[in-house]
Request: fold
Amino acid sequence: MNQADLKHADGTEVSTSEALLVEPSALSPGRRAFNTFVRSREFSIFLVLVAVILVATVKNGSFLFSSDGWRNFLLNPSILLLLAVGQAAVVITRNVDLSVGSVMALTAYLTGRLFIDQPGLPIIVVFGLCILFGAMLGLVNGVLVAYGKVPALVITLGTLYVYRGVMLTWAGSDRINAGDLPGDFLALGTKAVLTIPWLTIIAFAVLAAVGYYMYTARGGRELYAIGSDPDAAVLYGLKVKRRILAAFALSGALAGLAGLLYTARYGTVSSSVGFGIELQAVAAVVIGGVAIFGGSGTVWGAAIGAFLLVTINRALPSLGIEDFWQRAVVGALILGAIVLDRLLALRQARKLAEARDSS
Amino acid sequence: MSTATAAPARTYSDYSQPLWRRVLFTRESAIIALTVAVILYSLVNVQNFDGPLTLKFVLQDIAPILVIALPMTLVIITGEIDLSVASIMGLSSVLLGVLHQDGMPIPAAALLALLAGLACGALNGFLVAYVGLPSLAVTIGTLALFRGIAVGLLGTTAVTEFTEKWTDLATGTIGESNWPLVMVPIAVLIVVFVVLLHFTTFGRGIYDIGLNSEAAHFTGVNVARTKLVLFMLSGVVSAFAGIYFTLRFGTARGDNATGYELQVIAAVLLGGVSIFGGRGRLHGVIAGVVLIGVIASALRLESVTVNITNIIIGLLLIASVIAPSVLSWVAERLSRQAPPAPSEPSGPTEPPTTQHTAPAGV
Reply:
């Protein structure tokens, strides 16, 4: 953005020292798009992901090239990916949703209960009900945040406790077992099309839809505007409250979908479903280059971040590191990602300042 | 120049509310009143709540949360947050266990664990204060990092061999009374933190940073150093809580105290500290911690499951932050319906509240 503005401003009188700033416009549009892509945060995270996969595969060929390895590679990140996409939409508006793990647990249990109590219900209806239920839980967060004018961190911390408590009270001591679920539904978690599991296809479809919306649609761009400056967004006449509501509802709906897919994938629902996964979702978003204070980043990045987190998990044993250390690696990765972000931002600022001073 | 002396002396007392209103109508008083009410209600209605062991168990249960809530309050008042405290607890617990297993006496191992906590806090503080990274992101990272080191050091095993002398110390009481022995160091820490926050220049600087860190910088507050010190305090106090936790239950495990960070933050926010920074006092926070402990204990005696306790704590947390907004909305509604403006200014706590909640949704 900054570079584009400067170019425009400089268009009238170009001195030699400003040539550096103007230079990119001399490149062809295709070349510029390529440069933007290569320099993007998503691409560098993607390279890290590729590197991890390469190293792990070289050490142990079955990491990727056995049917089991390939399936796990695609299947394991799907649930975290859905949560990360929803979380990204919320974080971009300068909020955060810590309740996703509890929402996921509630809908996972709801899925099981629906199949047990209403055996005739078509699977597609269960899908709809779970997504709707998740969206409603998210909407509660959104209403409290947008109309209560209180920080999302506090509200969603509160609903994290409430939703989890409701789930545990509702479930009591019974758990959902694979035997309680229809075979068609469980097949969703295991079946694949062209070796790509259904769960992954669903997750990617959601990612594509949300990503396209965030990139092109007015509603999506307004989320960025709200995140970069909430006050300015209000003054500009954006419907801030409604957009924040929508972001939280989306996050809740995707957490609901994730809960349903969790049940399909694992077949059992115990009280510990999704415990602590909210911080993993935030971590995926941060690693993927979404600024924690909103206004920048993409859901693609968040999705790649989720993939990276889960893949590193699985790669560590084949790299000869005990998987006990996995969380430490994840922590170091998060710190590395935000420090890198900071350094890049500082370099950018210095370059722009130099260009300004020398003119 | 001479006009300055001629002007009548203006003092703030002409403009402020009467003292009793300023003392009574605060978040802290509300939370203390609620705590007292809950205690009285439990004493009357809950069986065995007045029993001799309740005090001991309530205090032992809340001890780690209480002690970490002290530095956490200071950190949140500067507008930052520390999510890594429970992981530092786990790490110090594991270090204590591993070092003791290798034959080191408990005091030396505990000292090293405290130093490790200090180092963890220093890492957080350095990244937040000197590199300028958002503390939420940094401490989510170190939450995973410190917990990962703890789990990595011990795996799924646990160290359970501790010298009995020291575990007795952690579970013991003061003389014949029911006050746990651990309350002695905690009382000292409470006094230290109250003095530090409310009666020193350093403490005023903490509020200044929370209200406006730029302005604080120009009034001579060393913003970066203050934040570094606070995160280091948070680290070392968390390590202390981890050592207590280990000795009390007699086990050092990598996953000790998982999830405590959210309990601590919930207690601090319940105690009237603003998440935006700049507002909050320690007596409110202590009342918040006690309130959560008493509710949990009373419900346990009523054999209500821990789930209901979690629901109640979550609802309390939401209600405590949303109440000011709802109140100001109601007040606004009422004043709009009754056009003749009320001669008396509306509730004393409201003007600052609306100011603080103004940045929508952040």
About this structure: The first strand of chain A starts at residue 192 and ends at 193. Chain A touches chain B through 57 residues (CB under 8 Å). Confidence is low (pLDDT under 50) at residues 1-14 of chain A. Chain A has 17 helices and two strands.
